[in-house]
Design brief:
The chain contains 10 helices and 2 strands; from the N terminus they run E-E-H-H-H-H-H-H-H-H-H-H. With 254 residues, the protein is mostly helical. The radius of gyration is 23 Å and the shape is flat. Pfam families: TetR_C_1.
Amino acid sequence: MSSDLPPSRRRPTHRKGRATLTRESVGRAALDFLGDHRPAELTMRSLAAALGVSPRALYNYVEDRRDLITVAAEIFEADWRLPPLDPAPGRWPESLRAMCRDLRAHYRRHPGMTTLALAENVTAARHPVMLRNVDALIGFFAGLGLPLPDAYRACMESIRLVVGFVEFQDSPYDRPPAHLGPADTAPLPPWLTPDGADELPHLSRLAADMPDGTGSPDEFFEFSLDVLVGGIAARLPDAEPDAGPDAEGGQWSP
């Protein structure tokens, strides 16, 4: 059967050799910009320059800088998919660790996104994909036997651990601020020296006992995951009073 309707026209993806803009492409460009620049450097003018267009062109797709950040934050949330989680006894600790490692990698690909969204008062977890991720993570903790309110708290604590670690621990190593030298981001902080043993006995001992530093960010993160898993294990209905890391590798075995 023929139709009298004219064929639909697709918007060209390129014009004069340059990609055409959409609201999503502008948001993704902002995410890419954050991968190479600091959050404060993201402005309508700087992004337009990076895209090779005039700032006025961006206003056809986003209202202002806050709207730009909102779009970027929504794309950022939607791009992460929750890995499979296994609540089975004996398997859930590594499943939780794997999820946290994956989320950490996602945040490290777009450094500063969380801090920028908070500074601009962009509501967190507003995208349907992120809401489904949060709901599934709550369900994972509920499947371990935690009451629903505690399952929600465990979900939020897991996310906060990852986000906080990326913002405060990973960022200085991934992209050292210009005003810091190599010594300032070394594994052992420069202010941690054996001097002043009387005033700072434990820090002084630490400097003497660990001359090569206190560990890489990855080692710190694994320690944090052990603490997270251990705390959750201690709250499970069948938790042993003396549950803790096993003797072989520091891994929790609830």
